[in-house]
Write a structure and sequence with these properties.
heterodimer, A: alpha+beta, 4-stranded mixed sheet, 3-stranded antiparallel sheet, 15 helices, B: alpha/beta, Rossmann fold, 5-stranded parallel sheet, two-stranded antiparallel ribbon, about 25% helix, globular, Methyl viologen-reducing hydrogenase (chain B), periplasm (chain B), iron-sulfur cluster binding (chain B)
Chain lengths: ~450, ~325
């Protein structure tokens, strides 16, 4: 008899989501859905706010990646006021972003994803979590808790807040870095770089090899990719142009403020989360057999679209990765591998920024005057390209807001991966909690 | 025996859960004392059975429930009511749970106005009817704090709450206490800046220039932000953002307070009090832009923010 399996809530992800798997009379997967069940309405309630308040209002969209919203919004408001922040301000923003990235990657890999890989996808749910990891691998757990928190402490010591920061402002940042602060921070960030190297080595030796089979099978879909590259084609988290790559690897680059020519958002009746798609690829269709307009963001997308990484250790890892999996790589579980390559770049770039003498310049903010304008700001959030598009009136009040956030870009792709994974693991009506967890693993790879 | 815990986020951003992790190294000592029976962020317990075949939401029995986020839709309301039935002590974690939080800014509009913008007037969105499906729970008429729906035993405000207070409140519960609260002090009581009780006067300045300060010197050498002519919500905001020992976090960043810990006392009206504080240092309080939204940024539940009546036709 036909049947529906409801997985709710989807766990070890951020927010409220539910999966339904629809089985036919033979117990095979007929259809699936990944529903996002919440909506807060930021695009409405930011209307009327003074533009300079935006970078500290929109942080509340996400408590895991507030720095990404903080900086995308700062860049959008820079554009509203028509100013370019001084070089030291940009370096300080980049530094904060990279350090926030480090904590975020450690969080996702070890707290959210690792239980599936370290404890095992079929383990009982009561032990398949971070507490299980603490018991199974106490030494590693200790380091993970310590270094994720070290990143947060570095941000707090310098910028006051790690969660929901206020440090970046339209036209620059709120305070310069003193030489004493630089000297205090540098050795700590070097510790984070050492830990990042350890994590990469640990995963390549102990985690990825065990799951090569699953990597080739679970959640694999062949769609396009979106990410930011700098002037030399290297992966850049903070600035550059957006690169939209087709499933076969052909790509087009465009400036942030041109995004409406390339990206549209479709709405379905059954999800609060919209479905962005590539406008020039012939419309949108969520048909698993023949998807239209679907692209992905976040780690795997970024390392697929980039010609190279920005830093040497990350570049060496990318070369090794591409030897095994090619470009673009379509295996969804490789998001985890790509996440660790990015972890290395974030740590290396943070060290480089702190070793740059210009970072302690006192020239950190330019003056601002309200005017009528539209401004688009974009950064790479941990979960994907993050677009903030604001309009401001002559009094400097916000009149319109459009946001496309990282995970929203991945909505269609997550739906397709859930469908693929469910069909891969559920056959003839046979499933258990471990099998259903494998369907969720296809979601967790996207770190939504 | 470990204390049984249920934790979940409702209309939230995950920042409160990250703040729990920001307990840092001591977390490893606390974890063995707790048995997480449900925690969407970290544990794979499901509401409708591990095989997804049940029809009623199952919340495990718990000694303590920790809930972040306010209530924004029918399903969150139902979940919160179920949690209340199963929990000994209910902790509201963070300013969304305690006051409605930033998402309660949406209370300045009617639901249909918000949905009309989101699904029909966003630049990149193909206009479409509002999603309508059993799997997208309808909004409640307003974004509510938890105590607008159920009885809350312990409130830990803050956006985010500081880990020191999370540990202290949890410790109180582990010791069998059913209540805990932050001391009633203002952010100014914990702020080391120089105060002379007068400002340069004139209109309240917008945040378009930085504060005046010497970065080589501590906050104790910087003039009060209100006295520099900017809005800082310190005088009407509950202290505690930097934990037991630190100085206020936004001030550390050389930026003004926006009131994320909420009012100092229950029932206080920060807007009225703040207008008084600005006037008392000689600023023209009425010149403050967007003051209703600004002064209720974190506390828009409890009817503090509502749609304004339609303006008469001109």
């Amino acid at each position: 008899m036909a049947k529906v399996i409801n997985i709710q809530p989807v766990t070890r992800i951020e927010g409220h989501a539910k999966v339904s798997v629809f089985l036919d009379d033979a117990g095979n997967v007929q259809d699936t859905r990944f529903y996002v069940q919440t909506l807060r309405g930021f695009e409405k309630f930011c209307e009327g706010r003074p533009a300079e308040e935006m970078p500290r209002i929109v942080v509340h969209i996400c408590g895991i990646c507030p720095w990404a919203h903080h900086l995308a919004s700062s860049k959008a408001t820079d554009a509203l006021f028509g100013v370019t922040p001084p070089p030291a301000a940009v370096k300080l923003r980049r530094l904060m972003q990279n350090i926030a990235y480090i904590s975020d990657k450690i969080l996702h890999f070890f707290f959210l994803a690792a239980p599936d890989f370290v404890i095992g996808p079929d383990a009982d749910y009561s032990v398949r979590n971070v507490v299980g990891i603490v018991n199974a691998a106490p030494d590693i757990a200790k380091q993970v808790v310590h270094y994720r928190h070290l990143g947060a402490k570095i941000l707090e010591n310098f910028a006051g807040r790690a969660i929901h920061p206020t440090f970046s402002v339209p036209g620059g940042v709120s305070k310069p870095m003193t030489e004493a602060e630089r000297q205090d921070m540098l050795p700590k960030v070097k510790e984070l770089l050492e830990f990042s190297k350890f994590v990469m080595k640990f995963a390549k030796e102990n985690v990825f090899p065990k799951y090569l089979d699953a990597i080739q099978k679970l959640g694999v879909i062949k769609v396009g990719y979106l990410g930011t590259v700098g002037p030399d084609g290297s992966l850049d988290f903070y600035d550059g142009k957006l690169r939209l790559m087709q499933p076969d690897g052909a790509y087009e680059d465009f400036a942030y403020d041109q995004y409406l020519d390339y990206l549209g958002e479709h709405v379905e009746d059954w999800s609060y989360q919209k479905f962005p798609y590539a406008k020039k690829w012939g419309g949108f269709a969520l048909d698993p057999a023949n998807p239209q307009g679907v692209y992905r963001t976040n780690t795997l997308a970024r390392i697929n679209v980039a010609d190279k990484m920005k830093t040497p250790l990350a570049q060496a890892e990318l070369e090794e990765f591409r030897k095994s999996f090619g470009r673009p790589a379509h295996q969804t579980l490789l998001y985890h591998y790509a996440r660790l390559i990015e972890l290395l770049q974030a740590a290396e770039e943070a060290v480089m920024l702190l070793e740059d003498p210009e970072i302690t310049s006192r020239d950190i903010r330019v003056p601002l005057s309200p005017r009528e304008a539209r401004g688009v700001g974009c950064v790479e959030a941990p979960r994907g390209s993050l677009i903030h598009d604001y309009t401001m009136d002559k009094d400097g009040l916000i009149t319109s807001v459009n946001l496309i956030v990282g995970t929203t870009h991945n909505n269609a792709a997550i739906n397709l991966s859930v469908n693929q994974a469910a069909k891969e693991v559920i056959k003839g009506g046979a499933y258990d909690q471990g099998i259903l967890n494998k369907v969720e693993m296809a979601i967790r790879a996207y770190d939504p | 025996m470990a204390v049984r815990v249920v934790e979940d986020w409702l209309n939230a951003c995950s920042g409160c859960e990250i703040s729990i992790l920001n307990i840092g190294d001591p977390l490893l000592d606390i974890l063995p004392l707790l048995e997480f029976r449900h925690m969407t962020a970290l544990v794979d317990h499901k509401f409708f059975g591990q095989l997804g075949d049940k029809t009623a939401m199952e919340i495990p029995e718990a000694d303590v429930a920790i809930v972040s986020g306010g209530v924004r839709n029918a399903e969150m309301k139902h979940e919160l009511e179920e949690i209340r039935k199963k929990a000994g002590v209910l902790i509201a974690l963070g300013s969304c749970a305690v006051y409605g939080g930033v998402p309660a800014q949406a209370n300045m509009w009617k639901t249909e106005e918000v949905f009309d913008k989101v699904f029909r007037h966003c630049a990149s969105t193909e206009p479409h009817a509002d999603p309508k499906d059993p799997n997208v729970p309808p909004w409640t008429p307003t974004c509510m704090a938890l105590d607008e729906v159920v009885k809350v035993d312990i409130a830990i405000p803050g956006c985010p709450p500081h880990p020191d207070w999370i540990v202290e409140a949890l410790t109180a519960v582990l010791e069998g206490k059913g209540s805990w609260s932050l001391p009633e002090r203002s952010v100014c009581d914990t702020c080391p800046v120089i105060r002379e009780k007068k400002s340069v006067g004139g209109p309240v300045k917008r945040w378009l220039t930085n504060l005046e300060f010497n970065p080589e010197e501590g906050l104790d050498k910087m003039r009060c932000i209100n006295e520099q002519g900017f809005l800082c919500m310190g005088p009407v905001t509950l202290a505690g953002c930097a934990g037991k020992t630190g100085v206020p976090r936004c001030i550390q960043a050389r930026t003004p307070c926006r009131g994320c810990f909420g009012p100092i006392r229950k029932g206080a009206n920060p807007m009225v009090d703040m207008m008084g504080a600005l006037t008392s240092v000689g600023l023209d309080a009425k010149s403050l832009l967007d003051r209703r939204a600004m002064m209720n940024r974190y506390i828009g539940g409890h009817g503090m923010l509502r749609p304004l009546p339609a303006r008469p036709a001109r």
